[in-house]
Design brief:
By secondary structure, this protein is an alpha/beta fold. It has 12 helices and 7 strands. The protein is 55% helix and 11% strand.
Length: 316
C-alpha cells in the first residue's frame, strides 16, 4: 500500500513538473505592460522579457529610469512615464497602450509598481501615512487594471499582481500589509470573474529582497522622522529604548532574511506570463517558501507568539 502511494506521489510530481514546463509559442507577437520599471523587480523583468523576444511596454516613474532602461534593452522595448496614484496619468498611459497594441490586445499586465514605509506601531502614524501607501500599492494597481482590462480580455491574456509575504502574514503596522492583503483580495475576485473570458490571474508573493524599497539607510532615516513627530504621550508610553530596540530588530531581520538574487521573483513573473499553465500563486525567496507562507497556515496564537517573541518591550 505504502509503495503504491509513493509511486502515485512521484508520478503526480513528475506530471506537475512537465505540465508547468510547457511554454507558449509565438511570444514575439505578445505585448506585456510592466509597471514600476525604474529599478528592482520591474526593471529586471523588463530585461528578461525583452531577451525572450516579447514586446515590452515598461512604465517608469522617472525620465532617468526610462532612459537607463532603454540603454540596456533592444529597440522593441518602449517606455512611458506613469504615476499610478494619478488617475489622469493612468488614463493617458492606457490610451498610449491602446494605440500601440491595436486589435491584438494586451497579452500581459504586471502590476509591480509600489511604495513602502518601514513598519511601525500603528499609533505612531497618521491617516495620511496609511493613505499614501494604500493609494499607490492598492488603489493605483486597481486603477491600472480596470483601465487595461478590455485590452487583456481581447487577447485572453494574463494579469500578474505583485503581493508580498506581508499580504499573507501581518508582520508590522502601517499601510503596507493592509495594501498587500488588499492585492490578494482583489486578485482573488478578478480570477473568479475573468475565468469565463479566458484571462488568467497570478499572484506573486516575494519575501525580503534587497531592492530600493528595502534600503536600510532610508528606512532608518524614515523611522527617525516618524518617531520625532509622534505625540509626546505616545512617545512616553513606548519609551526611547523601545524605539532604539525596534530599529535594531528591524536591521537584524533584514540582515537575516534579505535575499539579493531578485531573479527568484522575476522568474516567477516570467513563468506566469509565458507558461501554458501558469500557477495561481508564486512565492519568491527561501523565507517566503519555508517560513512566512507556512506561518500563514498555523493557528493564530502560534503565529502571534512567533512574530512577537523578540519584540521590544514598551516602557509602560
Amino acid at each position: 500500500m505504502w509503495l503504491h502511494l509513493l509511486v502515485f506521489l512521484i508520478l503526480i510530481t513528475l506530471y506537475r513538473r512537465y505540465r508547468y514546463s510547457l511554454t507558449l509559442e509565438s511570444l514575439a507577437n505578445k505585448y506585456v505592460l510592466i509597471t514600476g520599471c525604474d529599478s528592482g523587480f520591474g526593471n529586471q523583468l523588463a530585461k528578461q522579457l525583452d531577451r525572450r523576444g516579447l514586446r515590452v511596454l515598461a512604465t517608469c516613474f522617472t525620465e532617468k529610469g526610462a532612459e537607463d532602461l532603454k540603454k540596456e534593452t533592444s529597440s522593441r522595448l518602449q517606455t512611458v512615464i506613469l504615476d499610478i496614484a494619478n488617475n489622469q496619468s493612468v488614463i493617458s498611459v492606457a490610451k498610449w497602450v491602446t494605440d500601440i497594441v491595436g486589435d491584438k490586445g494586451l497579452w500581459g499586465l504586471v502590476n509591480n509598481a509600489g511604495t513602502g514605509m518601514p513598519g511601525t506601531p500603528n499609533e505612531w502614524l497618521s491617516k495620511e501615512d496609511f493613505a499614501r501607501v494604500v493609494n499607490v500599492n492598492l488603489l493605483g494597481t486597481i486603477d491600472v487594471t480596470l483601465n487595461l482590462l478590455p485590452l487583456i480580455r481581447k487577447s485572453k491574456g494574463r494579469i500578474v499582481n505583485v503581493s508580498s509575504i506581508a499580504g499573507r502574514v501581518t508582520i508590522c503596522g502601517g499601510g503596507y500589509c493592509i495594501s498587500k492583503f488588499g492585492i490578494e483580495a482583489f486578485s482573488d475576485s478578478l480570477r473568479r470573474e475573468l475565468r469565463p473570458f479566458g484571462v488568467r490571474i497570478s499572484i506573486i508573493a516575494p519575501g525580503y529582497f534587497k531592492t530600493g524599497l528595502n534600503d536600510m539607510k532610508w528606512m532608518k532615516d524614515t523611522l527617525k522622522n516618524i518617531w520625532r513627530d509622534v505625540h509626546p504621550e505616545i512617545k512616553h508610553s513606548y519609551g526611547e529604548k523601545y524605539f532604539n530596540d525596534y530599529v535594531s530588530d528591524l536591521e537584524k531581520s533584514f540582515q537575516l532574511f534579505c535575499n539579493t538574487d531578485i531573479t527568484q521573483v522575476t522568474n516567477c513573473m516570467e513563468h506566469a506570463l509565458t507558461a501554458v499553465y501558469p500557477k495561481t500563486r508564486y512565492s519568491g525567496g527561501w523565507d517566503a517558501k519555508f517560513l512566512f507562507i507556512p506561518l500563514s497556515y498555523v493557528p493564530t496564537v502560534l503565529a502571534d507568539y512567533l512574530l512577537t517573541r523578540t519584540a521590544p518591550t514598551p516602557a509602560y
